[in-house]
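In this section we walk through a basic example: taking a raw amino acid sequence and producing a predicted 3D structure, encoded as discrete structure tokens. The instruction is simple. Fold the sequence below.
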Amino acid sequence: MSRMVLSLLVGLAGLCPAWSQEPVVWVASPWQHVLRSTEPGGTKSAEIAAARNEYEPLRVIVHAGARALANVRVEASGLTGPAGRIEAQNVALFREHSIHVFRPSHRSQAPIGWYPDALIPIAGGDPAAKYPPLAASVEAGTNQGFWADVYVPRETAPGEYSGTITVTADGAPLGSVRVKLRVQPFTLPDQIAMRSNFGGLGRGLARHLGMDAGSQEFAAVEDQYIDTLLDHRAIPSSLGNIWPEWTPEGGIDDSRSGERLRAMVQDRHVNSLAVPFSYRSEPEKCRAYLRDLAAYLRNKDWLDLAYIYLEDEPNDAEQYETVRQQGALIRESGIQRMCTEQTVTSNPEWGTLYGAVDIWCPLWCLYDEKTARERQAQGEEIWTYTALCQGKGTAPFWQIDFSPVQFRAPFWTSWRYGVKGFLYWSSIYWGQGQDPWTTPHFRNQYWGEGMLLYPGKDAGLHGPAPSIRLKLIREALEDFEYMTLAAKQGNKPHVDEIVEGLARSFDDWSHSPEAYMAARVKLAALIAPD
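The resulting token sequence is shown next.
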């Protein structure tokens, strides 16, 4: 055969119609974007590691070849090893639901396309729902992803475990993935190291769902949203009916709320309590209320968990003065005061907020290390937050079409700066007149902004469907747990060295998913050396 003919045949092979392709079952990293159009990878097995009481994700991708696939089903076995067995019920499977990003988010360089984000649980979903959990069809030449969360129970013995995730289409075997899990010889605590405020629940959720915020029906639904966030080590701003009633004459009455507040703190390990700023327009009444509430919390040994959210993002002289007045009103109670503002004044002519704020919460792009260190030296606390795509474009933005590693990097930088908490303004901002299952964008240019949970009704769920982004945040918060555990064992200098190799500031951080995985291995070795 001549070289010319051979070259022609090779060229034609590259243009072969889709019907010449076979379906492929492959494994993707949680830290890579897999669009419907992404070429299938060559990885056929998954190797993961996790501590006891930790979740570790993996992804199985089904790529249809020449012909569409119908009735695609995924099933996980238990994981067995010489030290015992992790039952299949500890491997939670989800079908990835894709969003058509038809225009990139502000500052995003990613291509347009179908991005997976919502996760529909396979167990407990409704096959008749608009977005069913299984029986998925996969169009020819496209991908359908499935997410797996492997949970390692606390009593699991360390060692190597293995199992299988199998895929069928129309009842016929399509492929299988071998899962190897190394269980680390340590346990993540139930206590959560990073404090947080994930907003949007409470009355905001009731309004979005069209429910009465005071009804028992709504309380049952909201509990599922609260549980979902807490399962991801994220503390909701609203925890349901946890706050006692109060009157000037009778003081505190927790007969209806006391047990729930106790359960949230002691059983659910909530480390941040956003206190309602009641009676703020009646200063004397407000002082009396806060004084009694603070005494109640102090008696329970929970006062250090509580804070009041001051004027949001003060941005002029009048708002700065409002923060100072609010801070003075709250000061004598001893309840901490949080403000979403950086530690250096926005404008010297407005004065400063020093003395009015106990918890500073700057945007990543406005973090000022010098003044933050000064406030920390005064015993004040630093949190951070992100919103929209503000700044000069070097902070790790959190939209659907930004690299998944951007959900990991900020919590490594938080360790670097001694940051204790994080705020995200809403977890359920489903805009008026738009369907979050098809157009989850804010102001038409921020995909997924303010929305980490999807309303579960269309997936046949009473509670929410989580997002891939929430799963990635959980992984980063678990990273923070590794840092905390290692530091508590006397290894803080080594932890600092590992972290600073990746995250030097909110503008200077590693974009390599592999680098964070390698650093996590080093952290695990500090916790449980061989």
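Looking at the output, two observations stand out. Residues 132 and 459 are 6 Å apart (CA to CA). The first strand starts at residue 24 and ends at 28. In the next section we compare this with other chains.
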